[in-house]
Amino acid sequence: MSLPSSLTDFSLAEARDAVHAKKVSSKELATAFVKAIADARPLNAFVTETPEKALEMAVASDVRIAHGEARPLEGLPLAIKDLFCTKGVKTTAGSHILGNFIPPYESTVTQNLWDAGAVMLGKTNMDEFAMGSSNETSYHGPVFNPWRARNSNQNLVPGGSSGGSAAAVAGNLCLAATGTDTGGSIRQPAAVTGTVGIKPTYGRCSRWGIVAFASSLDQAGPMTRTVRDSAILLKHMASVDPKDSTSVDVPVPDYEADLERGVKGLRIGIPKEYRIDGMPPEIEQLWQKGIDWLKAQGAEIVDVSLPHTKYALPTYYIVAPAEASSNLARYDGVRYGHRAEGAEDIVDLYEKSRAEGFGKEVQRRIMIGTYVLSSGYYDAYYARAQKIRTLILRDFTEVYEKVDVLLTPATPGPAFGIGEKTADPVSMYLNDVFTVTVNLAGLPGIAVPAGLTENGLPLGLQFIGKAFDEATLFRAARAIETAANFTAKPAHWWRAA
């Protein structure tokens, strides 16, 4: 195999094959990415860089390879979202309140990756506690999308909350990255950065050691450059875990093995409710193009209805803040994290520590969540939202009696400018309109790059699958990837910054 002009241009699969064939050493790969990360600091994609650790792990991988003991991901450098606890490496969840937290333990997902031989490059920036759709709520400042519109110097958002991971993958700062998805936080940033992101079925990956936002919605997943890379990485992230009671004991298939089976004979549903008012023509056209590509490859297209979709966004913004307000009660300034100075008593300590430690968006969601759980409002809001959630899942269950997967847009538009929507939370929340149903129903969803806007910004399509049927999602996504032949790359403007 021929090597790319820069080692950072490798896909994960290409790098794996090159390292195992000893065409390139793990140390050479890690060194190239460490330099790329240092050169790309204007993107603000990383909050903690771990170059010494990366090189140490890479050298150990080279020794294993020399002894014929290579593991599946041996020597492959990855970036880790700052929501995953990493033993001995600072984990802030993008928040001031965890600004000095160094976990004494490793999350199950990252431990799985290290056990498979992967190398850690550092921790990626993110919306504070994963609350945001643009990566502008981070205590460490916004992440900048590696992409810019044609003939424009405007800085764009990379999507959120996994914006740092998306920017790192799109900017060739790692082979792949981990993300988490509570309402679209893997798929939405993947779509607006021209990368691939899959939110697996709830319970497919352990949540142990991942800082909690909304426990019934959160799910870890890979963010990669290609569908094949996603299939490889998910195989090694996923596992049953006795430490996570929501982890499900089902076999993890070899997703890569089935990738090229194609979509011939698959029934692909097109939900009419995803044709929302005011949808940009570019999104509508891309969706139609996706339908045509699948038809041409032998898939059967079926129009379907998910009638309760229109209630998904308000349901999500009741359930998620309610769970967040409960999960974030542990940050009190007493046990770990930020502690305010000059408190007069314990109540004052709680109030000051939380007021200083949490940003505006997190405070907003805690307030909403506490309100909907409060006496007198619980039945009116939270209990009703849970009933609607059940109806949303029932819609999917009924539709999957007729089809194998669903094809929808991934986002209502391309990346927007930094600061463009921060003053309007509702407008910001609408970015999740195509993604939140998947989390409410606990289903898998994947975003795959499918085209560019007129001014050269990436757009993605989304497949939604049956529970624990990620294999079919990967097949369908690979079919779109093949047809779209998305080869565009962002110009490396940050190198001149």
Q: Which terms would index this structure?
A:
11 strands; 12% strand; 497 residues; Amidase signature (AS) enzymes; single chain; alpha/beta; globular; eleven-stranded mixed sheet
Overview of this structure, please?
With 497 residues, the protein is α/β, with parallel strands linked by helices. It has one domain: Amidase signature (AS) domain (Amidase signature (AS) enzymes), CATH 3.90.1300.10. It has 15 helices and eleven strands. Strands 1-3-2-4-6-5-10-11-9-7-8 form an eleven-stranded mixed beta sheet, sandwiched between helices. β2 (77-81), α4 and β3 form a beta-alpha-beta unit. α2 runs antiparallel to α3 (51-66) and α7 (227-237) runs antiparallel to α15.
Biggest sheet details: 11 strands, mixed
Alpha-beta content class: alpha/beta
Number of distinct helices: 15
Strand order of the largest sheet: 1-3-2-4-6-5-10-11-9-7-8
Per DSSP E runs of 2 or more residues, the count of β-strands stands at 11
Write the layout of secondary structure elements.
Blueprint: H1 12-20, H2 26-39, E1 46-49, H3 51-66, E2 77-81, H4 108-115, E3 119-124, H5 163-170, E4 176-181, H6 187-193, E5 196-199, E6 219-224, H7 227-237, E7 267-271, H8 281-296, E8 300-304, H9 312-327, H10 346-357, H11 360-373, H12 378-399, E9 405-409, H13 425-429, H14 436-441, E10 445-452, E11 458-465, H15 470-484
Helix pairs in contact: 2-3, 7-15, 9-11, 9-12
In short:
With 497 residues, this protein is an alpha/beta fold. The protein contains 15 helices and eleven strands.
